[in-house]
Amino acid sequence: MRKTVSGLYAITPGLADSTLLMGKVDAALRGGACVVQYRNKSADEQLRHEQALAIARLCRGAGACFIVNDSIKLARDVAADGVHLGKDDDGVDAARALLGPAKLIGVSCYNQLWRARDAVAQGADYVAFGSFFPSSTKPGAVTASRELLRAAKKFALPIVAIGGITSENAAGLIEAGADAVAVVSAVFDAPDVERAARRIAGLFAARSVLKLQS
C-alpha cells in the first residue's frame, strides 16, 4: 500500500555512528514519527547505503514512511517509499522515471509558492516549505510564513513545514495547514528522543480530536 506523508516527519542527523543513529530512529518511531527521512550529507556512499537500508527496515517494522533525501538512486536501491528533492537535485521527472509511479516524491519549495505550483504540475506527491523559525541545521535558510501554508492548501497535496520547529511552536503551523512538521534537532538532539517525538506527534492527535468534536 502506498504510504502517505502526515504527522511527525523526522529528519535524521548526519551521524557516522550507525548504532547510535539506529537507536535514535527507533526511539523516534516509538514516539510516533510517521515519516523518517534519511539525510546525511557527509557520509560516503557505502555508509549511506548501509544506514539507509537499516532505517528502511526499522520503518517497515513500524509501519512508517521512509524517505531518502536527495539521492534518487539510493532511494531505489534500498526500496525506500520515496525521495525528497531540493532545488539543486534532479527533478521530479527524473525521480519518477527511476522510481516508478508508486513511490512518493517530495519537493522543497522554500518560501516560494511558484515552486510548489511547478512541482505539482510535474507530478510531485507532497511539497515542503520553510524555514518557519531559526534553524541550527540551516542557519542561513530563507524565512517562510504561515500565510504560505494557507495559500498552498489549494494544491490539494500534503504540505510539510520545516525549520526550527519544536513542540512549543508546531501547533500554529498545523493550524495554518501543515499536514506534517519536519524536525531534526528538537527530536534527535533531545535527551529522551522518544518523549520528544511523542510530544510533537501528540499535537496531530489533538487536532484530530478537535476536528471530531467540531
Please tally the helical runs, counting DSSP H or I stretches of 4 or more residues.
Answer: 9
Number of structurally distinct domains = 1
* CA-atom Rg in angstroms: 16 Å
According to CATH, what is the topology?
Answer: TIM Barrel
| Anisotropy-based shape | globular
What share of the residues lie within helices? 40-55%
DSSP strand (E) fraction? 15-25%
Model description:
This protein is of the alpha/beta class and 214 residues long. It has a single domain, classed as Aldolase class I (TIM Barrel, Alpha-Beta Barrel). Helix content is 44%, strand content 17%. The chain has nine helices and eight strands. The chain has an eight-stranded parallel β-barrel with strand order 1-2-3-4-5-6-7-8, surrounded by seven helices. Helix 1 runs parallel beside helix 2, helix 1 runs parallel beside helix 9 and helix 7 (170-176) packs parallel to helix 9 (193-213). The longest helix is centred in the last third of the chain and has 21 residues, at 193-213. The chain is globular, with a radius of gyration of 16 Å. The relative contact order is 0.16.
